Amino acid sequence: MKKFLCAAGLTIALTAYTPALAQAGSNGIKVGINLKDVKDDKVMVTVTPPKVTTETTTYYIPKIVPGTYSDDNYGSFIEGFKAYDTKGKELAVTKPDVNSWKIANAKKLAKITYLVNDTYDTEGQGTHDVFSPAGTNISPNNYMLNNHGFVGYFDGKGEVPYTVSISHPAALWGATSLIDTDASDTNDVFAVARYADLVDNPIMYSKPDYTTFSVEGMDILISVYSPDGKVTAKSITPEMETMMRAQKRFLGPINSTKKYSVLLYLSDLSTNDAKGFGALEHNTSTTVVMPKEMPIDQLKESLKDVVSHEFFHIVTPLTVHSKEIQYFNFNTPKMSEHLWMYEGITEYFANLFQVNQGLITEDDFYKRMAEKIASSKMFDDTMPFTKMSRNVLEAPYKDAYNNVYEKGALIAMCLDIQIRESSGGKRGILDLMQKLSNEYGSSKAFDDSELFNKVVALTYPEVRTFLDTYVAGNTPIPYEQYFSKMGVTKATVTKTGNALIKGQQEAYITANMAGEIILVPDVQDNEFMTTLGLKGGDVLAGVNGTKYDVNNVYDLIMSSMSWKEGEPITIDIKRDGKTQQVKGKIKLPSEQVEGYKATDASKAGIRNAWLKG
Question: Which of 15, 54, 343, 520 has a beta carbon 3.0–4.6 Å from 442's, enabling a disulfide?
Fold first, then answer.
């Protein structure tokens, strides 16, 4: 999972193989999802179980799903649950908790039915905290089926085959990595070997807008839902293809996935719509949610970071993972202690491959790592990462989860550096993950307690000291010491900011009682404002011909993210009740911050092996 922090202040599974087709016979589960006859924004689901041999059985909707590391209680979106025998008579049902339904006289059970509410249109209202890429949408033009939000499992039946039939309007097409075995244009039939495979394969129904291409034997699908049609799959595919080809080159033989789908949902910030921006990984796909107001160039850059992170999850935890993940319990999970690997190495790869493949410069890479160091300092730097990971669903550890993208990536970087130093530059962390993939793979899980021993056996004794001290231990990592091994030292660097947002969090603008956008009255001027002569209290009525007020303030903020140094700009303002127009060139604010630079030429060889090898 990767969350994207939007400048507007918005917080912005598990095997690496294609699920075998397995029609649900008498021992399987059949599911019907009706997207044709949706009433009151609710979808009817019908589930036919295999023969039940016990007096009672329990049906579960997940409390938590892989990759989210949070209790989301998807059962709270279910209503009208009913169980029937073969004669259509209702069976007694009790509700032990929010995510389960216990059915009496279960030997007579013929089917269950219930209605599903979606998560998108109630986000930000304090009723739930479901991360949008793991959520659901029910609207006439789009249905986002993260299947854990629609379909559950019977007690003891999680490993039986599922056949899912989905009736839908002919104008909508289901984008997924699953194979539809029904030729009808109003009904799709998908078969999977077990419940986890169903959860692992989301489906997005919308007006067809997709592209396909092949990368070294992997078929890629890019599907886009854009409410205003301004962003299309065709418009983002060139950049996505460049990125994914670079990722495949970087990974080499480590990955054998044959099909991968990117399902992009663009949210409308002006309505009750998804507000959690980012992505959620799956074995052969990723679901992505971004705001439609984001300028296309900024969207492409964000997708490069966010989607690349999810794609690298193919390595871990989708290929290399513990038994806690292989046999994930959706309602009473036991968490693995190795988030440093699942999320940390994944995030590190999402940055390393870009410098490795020439998509960013070495200085850009150092700047990103420096930002992660600064961000990691907001968390308890003495909290053992293995302990945090094992207890991530509980306080205070769950409050440290976001550090997996900061310190987790830094752990991976320093481990990479240590392996490079110990091997004389010949090996790195990618080599380690390739060996772990060969040792385990998608169908063989490791014991949590054995991973460190295996890593050390595949690398060097110095790695044991690193893992015990900085990953399982409570000692903060001396980053300067590890950077110096590669000839990189601390330096002062220039960081360019946003014209309207300070540090991605503090806004220079606000709204007055009339709904107009104004510069904060006591604003501390930045270079953008002083260059154009703007003052605190000025009403920003329009920019480059587009009018703005409180109703489309997010559009203005999103637009400002793509402003470039030296570009011409025209701003309509009101000052002291008088309208005037300000013209000039953009001067983006900047500040001097701590960063890193390559300074030791004698270590250029090992540094090049680290970043380019």
Answer: 15
Cβ atoms within 10 Å of 443's Cβ, excluding its own? 10
30-34's contacts with Cβ under 8 Å and 24+ in sequence apart are: 30/162, 30/163, 30/164, 30/165, 31/151, 31/162, 31/163, 31/164, 31/165, 32/164, 32/165, 32/166, 32/167, 33/145, 33/150, 33/151, 33/164, 33/165, 33/166, 33/167, 34/167
Give 308's contacts (C-beta < 8 A, 6+ positions apart).
Answer: 243, 247, 349, 350, 353, 354
150, 34 Cβ separation under 8 angstroms: no
Q: Is 221 helix (H, G, I), strand (E, B) or coil?
A: strand
Query: What pLDDT digit, counting tens, does each position of 392-406 carry?
Result: 999 999 999 999 999
Cα–Cα dist 405/351, whole Å: 11
pLDDT tens readout for residues 220-235: 999 999 999 999 999 9
**Phi/psi at 220 (nearest 5 deg)?**
-110, 135
pLDDT reported for residue 5: 47
Return d(Cα 586, Cα 499) in angstroms, integer: 9
Q: What is the pLDDT of residue 4?
A: 52
Q: How far apart are CA 528 and CA 465, in angstroms?
A: 49
- The CA distance from 294 to 269, in Å, is 10
> For residues 523 and 525, what is the distance between their CA atoms, to the nearest angstrom?
6
Task: Kindly report, residue by residue over 333-351, the tens digit of the pLDDT.
Answer: 999 999 999 999 999 999 9
In three-state form (DSSP H/G/I as H, E/B as E, the rest C), the secondary structure along 437-457 is HHHCCCCCCECHHHHHHHHHH
Q: What number of residues does the chain have?
A: 613
Cite the beta strand spans of 388-487 per DSSP E: none
For the chain, what is the radius of gyration of the CA atoms? Answer: 26
Q: How confident is the model at residue 9 (pLDDT cuts 50, 70, 90)?
A: very low
Strand partners, 262: 222, 286
Distances (CA, A) of 308 to 261, 278, 428, 541: 13, 11, 20, 38
DSSP H helices, 164-321, are 195-199, 233-251, 296-312
Angle separating helix axes 296-312 and 233-251, nearest 10 degrees: 40
Question: Model confidence over 101-125: pLDDT tens digits?
Answer: 999 999 999 999 999 999 999 998 8
222 touches 240 (CB < 8 A): yes
Is the per-residue pLDDT at 518 higher than 60? yes
Q: How far apart are CA 221 and CA 282, in angstroms?
A: 14
Which residue do the tokens 């029904």 mark? 182
Residue-wise pLDDT tens digits, 147-174: 999 999 999 999 999 999 999 999 999 9
